[in-house]
Amino acid sequence: METSPLNHETAEEIEIDRSALLTYYWRLTFLFLLPPMTPIGLFFLLVGPWYYPVCTSATRYRSWLSPRTLFSKSGVFFRSEKSVPLDRITDIVIKQGPVLRHSGLHALYIQTAGMGDQMPEICLYGIRNPTEIRNRILEARDRFLKSKTPIGA
Fold first, then answer.
1. For the purposes of burial, counting CB atoms within 10 Å of the CB of 92, is it exposed (0-12), middle (13-18) or buried (19 or more)?
2. Separation between Cα atoms, residue 55 and residue 129, nearest integer Å
3. Where are the beta strands (DSSP E) in the chain?
4. Which ranges in 37-121 belong to alpha helices (H)?
5. What is the pTM of this model?
6. How many beta carbons lie within 10 A of that of residue 99, not counting itself?
């Protein structure tokens, strides 16, 4: 158990495979930078400035699950901290594109009633056991909804 940085509520951190996530980020970087390059010097010129943000991004990406809220914190240059009350979560989608599949990772897209289908409220990348994490979040949501239900209703 760890104290969440957002509201100091006791929360458990969601396990993210940071080394595999770093590999995933590097593969995406090379995927976008490799086609326009031919000489090796241009390669180091382009990849050099990306080294710090890519490595730092994998270490700064964190998520917590509390009894009432799901928290997410990410970003290097543009930092983001999000919190979603568990009672607003409508669906959790497990996705795995070709680069994630090659890294052995999954992404969880947390959807809420207010966001619609186009854009998830929170994206959790670097998840090795997505079904277990999804079930933990949904069970926490159900416990929270039962505790909110008035007796006799």
1. buried
2. 22
3. 2-3, 10-13, 62-65, 69-74, 80-85, 89-95, 106-112, 122-127
4. 40-60, 98-103
5. 0.72
6. 14
Tokens 């009432």 — which residue? 68
Contact 123, 108 (CB under 8 A): yes
Which token pair is 66? 């509390």
Provide the residue-wise pLDDT of the chain in tens; the chain has 153 residues.
444 455 545 778 888 887 777 777 777 766 666 555 555 545 555 665 555 555 666 667 788 999 999 998 887 777 888 999 999 999 999 999 887 888 888 889 999 887 666 788 888 888 888 999 999 999 999 999 998 766 655
Buried b (16+ CB within 10 A) or exposed e, 105-135: bbbbbbbbeebeeeebbbbbbbbeebeebbe
Please tell me what DSSP assigns to residue 15: P
Residue with the two structure tokens 């995406």: 28
Rounded to whole angstroms, what are the CA distances from 1 to 15, 18, 65, 97, 135?
A: 12, 19, 10, 31, 18
Residue located via tokens 């290097």: 76
